Amino acid sequence: xxxxxxxxxxxxxxxxxxxxxxxxxxxxxxxxxxxxxxxxxxxxxxxxxxxxxxxxxxxxxxxxxxxxxxxxxxxxxxxxxxxxxxxxxxxxxxxxxxxxxxxxxxxxxxxxxxxxxxxxxxxxxxxxxxxxxxxxxxxxxxxxxxxxxxxxxxxxxxxxxxxxxxxxxxxxxxxxxxxxxxxx
Length: 184
Description:
Elements: H1 2-19, E1 25-27, H2 30-56, H3 61-92, E2 95-100, E3 105-110, E4 113-115, E5 122-130, E6 142-147, E7 152-156, H4 163-168, E8 174-179
Parallel strand pairs: 5-8
Antiparallel strand pairs: 1-2, 2-3, 3-4, 5-6, 6-7
Helix pairs in contact: 2-3
């Protein structure tokens, strides 16, 4: 049933993307969260039942060692993604990004209030990406806009794919930094 619902959701999302108009307003939404948490959730779904079944009955010492190794692998792959997701959601749950590169528009709203700035107001841009692309948390990245007046605006990958936004800001002292975990 879960696979069927997942396939229906993916087909619906694909159809909306194919026949809908291109989005220019980005917020932290459910579908972006599903996209970022697909593999960590799949790991927990596959890895936790054998662990809980083994711990529910008396086991031998070898089984305890194997269960501990499996639990460490499952949690080691999925837990950082959940922590990053929670941190990014907490930070950008009220943030709205209006991004239209063809019209040269980049606006950030915190709740109903616009955080006004122009391209000339940006002192530096820090673009943090994951060092390796083969882990579950590699899609979590952030973009920090350091403004001349001392404000710092942080945009996370929970809003949208930040690659096009970083490309749009490439002439404003963009510093790309690779990290193992892109903690805020």
